[in-house]
Amino acid sequence: MNYKLSPSDLTFLYDGCKHCFVLKVKHGISQPSIPLPAIFSTIGSLQKNYYSSKRTEAFCPELPPGVVMLGEKWVRSRTIDFSECSSSCFINGRFDIVANLDDGSYAVLDFKTGNPNEEKAGMYSRQLHAYAFSLENPADGALRLSPISRLGLLYFTPDKCAQIKMPRQILEGEMRWIEVERNDSVFLDLLRGMVLLLDGPLPPPEPETCNWCAYRERIRTVPVSTEPSAGSEVFASGSPPPTCPTCNGPMRLRSGRFGDFWSCMNYPQCKGTRNT
């Protein structure tokens, strides 16, 4: 199997829940989409438009001289094989901007809004490595740029609001450059581990740390009303409720002081219960 890996899936999804990661990449079952708040998309779009065609030394003196040349272009890598894996993978995604440096190399830059920290920068470095690897090792017909000599994040942290004139308002803040060190061997080791995970059995759900796993686990015991008879109800999982250990009658899910439990539907005549 040749797994398609999105650069965004290499960060929060992979670190957040291996069960959900495998469900999406291998089985095509994605977590319900939660759109990014529109303001962040708007800020990112305005930044890409503003910095297009600008010299790097005009807005980021930490970068070598060059000019921003491309924004929001799709990349696709060649197939990546690993000797110890029966399957392979490829990268498919879209970068923010690329600068053509005066020395003939390229810099891949990603815009972020918020407060930078080492943990987030470490995860986002995977995205930047995915773009860099794909540009240097493209699939047939895909965009090719080489060599990629610099990777980094341009972090905008708003800290001031001002009204320039009615009804115009502006946000001001520091724009910080976060350098990402290139390390392809570490990146490829990460991909190798992902392919091995995908080739193996489905990891167990992680309801203690993953909200979507917790949600799926909870809805399995939610009764779905059916007609015509009480006691014929089924649950969101498609399974019928258990039978009462005392009278062998149908049961329904209830909540008590110590959590959820199954209670006989003939209560109070029958007080049979089961643990969930």
Structure description:
The chain is of the alpha+beta class and about 280 residues long. It folds into 2 domains: about 1-210, Lambda Exonuclease, Chain A, CATH 3.90.320; about 220-275, no CATH class. Helices cover about 30% and strands about 30% of the residues. It has helices at about 10-15, 20-25, 40-50, 55-60, 120-135, 185-200, 210-220, and strands spanning about 1-5, 65-70, 75, 90-95, 95-100, 105-115, 150-165, 170-180, 225, 235, 250-255, 260-265, 275. The strands form 4 sheets. Strands 2-5-6-7-8 form a 5-stranded mixed beta sheet, with helices on both faces. Strands 1-4-3 form a 3-stranded mixed beta sheet. The longest helix is centred in the middle third of the chain and has 19 residues, at about 120-135. It is flat, with a radius of gyration of 26 Å. The mean pLDDT is about 90.
What is the structure about, briefly put?
By secondary structure, the protein is α+β, with helices and mostly antiparallel strands. The protein folds into two domains: 211 residues, Lambda Exonuclease, Chain A, CATH 3.90.320; 55 residues, no CATH class. Helix content is 28%, strand content 30%.
Keywords:
2 domains, alpha+beta, 28% helix, 5-stranded mixed sheet, 3-stranded mixed sheet, Lambda Exonuclease, Chain A
In round numbers, the mean pLDDT is: 88
CA(first)-CA(last) distance: 38 Å
CATH topology of the largest domain: Lambda Exonuclease, Chain A
Q: What summary fits the major beta sheet?
A: 5 strands, mixed
Helix percent band: 25-40%
The level-1 CATH class of the largest domain: Alpha Beta
Coarse structural class: alpha+beta
Helices and strands, in N-to-C order?
A: EHHHHEEEEEHEEHHEEEEE
Whole-angstrom Rg: 26 Å
Note the beta-strand portion: 25-35%
For the largest sheet, list the strands in their spatial order.
2-5-6-7-8
Shape, per Cα inertia axes = flat
Number of strand segments: 13
Total helix count? 7
List low-confidence stretches: none
